[in-house]
Amino acid sequence: MSAPQLVVHRDKELMAQAAAARLITKVVDAQSSRGSASVVLTGGRNGNGVLAALAAAPARDAVDWGRIDLWWGDERYLPEGHPERNVTQARAALLDAVPLDPKRVHAMPASDGPYGTDVEAAAEAYAAELARAAGPENHGAVPSFDVLMLGVGPDTHVASLFPELPAVRESERSVVGVHGAPKPPPTRVTLTLPAIRAAREVWLLAAGEDKAQAAAMALSGAGEVQAPAAGAYGRSRTLWLLDAAAASALPRSLYPPASP
Ligand SMILES: O=C(O)[C@H](O)[C@@H](O)[C@H](O)[C@H](O)COP(=O)(O)O
Question: Which residues form the Glucosamine/galactosamine-6-phosphate isomerase domain (predicted)?
């Protein structure tokens, strides 16, 4: 477990641009040292903001897009191509604009796919896909993702792990179905905390006033069942990328004050 490090940016645009720059560097480094990179994407405005900033970054061409595996932390269980699916939004923000290898774009199943309304079967299928990609050196049923990004919800949810719902307590499976999520749509597929913790680096993104209490709670010792974001950490690094508004309720002891 790595203790959280905080980086506070002036506003959400700068936060997205800085995260995109950071992601380019990480991916290029992973490709140089291991031949390929694996990145887990998140849904939500901030995750999509990072992808849009990456699409606009001149340095995006430094990435070898054919040698990157893309996975998702969660998916809204909706039909293929639905505008509210996380993968649809990621495609619009970045993926359609770069030369990815389609075999390495691991979208979560859709509700009109082979599993139909059986979200548990969809979750099992995604767990099996992750297991196939995990090498012996990965020590588990999921690959050692280079970077796993998570948007933080105002209730401290990450991926589709909502406070007190069964998915956040899952300790065995890497992927589960979610019913009755408080954020629409209610049916979702999500990585579990053990799968998230297999990542080398976990980056939590929080911007806006409505995230201030969530960030303060998750970073002040709350339990992961009440505050799922508190249970999201990487093996070598846990990075909270915040804008000033989301950082506004944090105890000053957690990060140095901005220069006057
Ligand atoms: O399916 C989703 O909606 C998500 O993956 C979810 O976990 C999201 O990342 C947070 O709710 C933060 O979303 P915002 O960045 O839009 O606040």
Answer: 11-240
Q: Is residue 142 part of a domain?
A: yes
Q: Measuring from each residue's beta carbon to the nearest atom of ligand 1, which residues come in under 6 Å?
A: 42-47, 74, 76, 86, 151, 153, 157-159, 183
* Predicted local distance difference test score (pLDDT) of residue 260: 52
Position 120 in a domain: yes
Query: Considering only CA atoms, which residue is closest to atom 11 of ligand 1?
Result: 153
Number of domain units in the chain: 1
Mean pLDDT of 209-229: 97
Question: Can you give the CATH number for the domain in which 111 is found?
Answer: 3.40.50.1360
Measure 210 CA to ligand 1 centroid, in angstroms: 13
ipTM of the complex: 0.97
Q: How far is the CA of 145 from the centre of ligand 1 (A)?
A: 20
Domain range for 127: 4-251
| 258 belongs to a structural domain | no
| 179 pLDDT more than 80 | yes
Q: What is the pLDDT of residue 258?
A: 59
pLDDT band at 252 (very low <50, low <70, confident <90, very high): confident
Report CA(35)–ligand 1 centroid distance (Å).
30
Q: Is there a domain that residue 125 lies in? A: yes
